[in-house]
Each structure stands twice: as C-alpha cells, then as structure tokens.
Fold this protein.
Amino acid sequence: MSDTKAPPAVALHNLTVRYRRHPALLHVSGAFAHGSLTAVMGPNGSGKSTLLKSIIGLVPADAGLEVAAVRCAVPRHQMAYLPQQSGLDPSFPIDVRDCVLLGLWGQTGAFGAATPAMLARTAHALHAVGLEGFERRPVGTLSSGQLQRALFARLIVQDAQLILLDEPFNAVDAKTTAALLGLVRQWHTQKRTVIAVLHDDAQVRQHFPQTLLLAREPVAWGDTGRVLTEANAQRAQAMAQAWEDQDQPPASPLRVAAFPLAEALQGLPP
C-alpha cells in the first residue's frame, strides 16, 4: 500500500494575473484539497473572480514561470463554472430546459439531439431546484432567483468534480439561497471540490469550512474561524486601499508655457 499523498484538486504556484499591466492577482500560492468546500472572500477588486477564471482557464497567468501557476488534478470536462448573473444575457432566446441541457454540451455537441436519458437527467435536475413545469419558459421571463435555480440545475446535469461559483447567491431571495446552499452541502458530502466567491461573513461561517481571504495577494487561507478575524479584515481593507491608490493615474503636471520667461513677462507693469 502506497503512502503517497494524493495531489490536491487545484494547486496554485505564485499565480499572478495582470490586466493592462496592473496586477489583478499577485503571488497566490496554495492548494484546494479534493472534496474541500472553500469560500473566497475579500474587498471589491481583490481578484476573487479573476481567481476562478484563472483556474478554469479563461484568463492566462503571467508567463515566465518554470512551474505552471495553476495545476488541476481534475480533467477539464469534469469542471463546472457559474459566473455572476451580471455577466449573463437573459434575453438570449432559449428556454429553461435547453438552458439546463447546455450542461451536457460535451456529450451532445453543437448539433446532437438530446437522448431520453439526457432529458430524464434534466427533468431530475429541475425537480431538485424546484422548477418543475418551467421547462418551456424563456429564461428572459425568469426572476433572478428562478434563473439562478435553472443555472444550478445545469450544474447538476454536468455532474462535475470541481465546481466554481462566482457570487451564486447574489440578488436572490432568502428561500432560494437556502435551497441552493442545500445543493452545495450535498456536493460537499459527495466529495466534490467546491470553490465559491462570496461576501456574506455569517453565511460563510455557517456553511463553508475553509476560506481564502484575498486582497489581490493572499491575506489568510485556512479554517474559516481562523481566517475571518477582525485583524485579517482590517489588513485586507488596508491592502485593497493601497492597491486602489496605486491604480490611480498620476495627476497631470501643470503645463508650462513653451516660450522664455522674459517673453512671458513682457507687458507686465514694472
């Protein structure tokens, strides 16, 4: 029997991401263990969404490192990513059932027809999120909470081992939040790895055993009770403010007349 420790689901090595030469993430190193349930928290602009996009491969890390900045033990087809609702277009002409079926894109392809088994999985997922009878509703007619339920149903049919959630409970009602948190807990008991960007301290303390606190750089990472302290929160705010000040463009220097001082003084009274 080997005592070799299994690699983590996601390992980060000095992960740095820049937008227009400004760092969005800087020197992030650490690991998300298989089956872990982790909240990612931090002030606005601290790189939380960028972290998820880096893991899924939507934004590149800085080049030049000898070791890959992001290493995933989970294959790409076993990853699922839910972006913020603000990044979605609810006017896209698609109904709820087809929206959920998109979670099976890897099996159907662009023009493949859904099999009876796929339709059964979709029906089961809609039942799990409380959207029975919504199959033919256009997604543009759904409330924020209903749309988020439909997107969670899509995650269910994907059956992924690594699930990335970006503000999954933002702008949804308390009942929907409770129902979706139940699904997250279920995924955790199934030993899936879940990483969620969140902002509600009380929610994180109650439901997420691990937390990564970011301010572009890691502030603290580990057990939630040890990470979410007042000292760490103040440090994160101070770091975020320092980065924000650094991002501000320098004040434009006063323009000096291009002609000699003697000419500038001509006509002035002695």
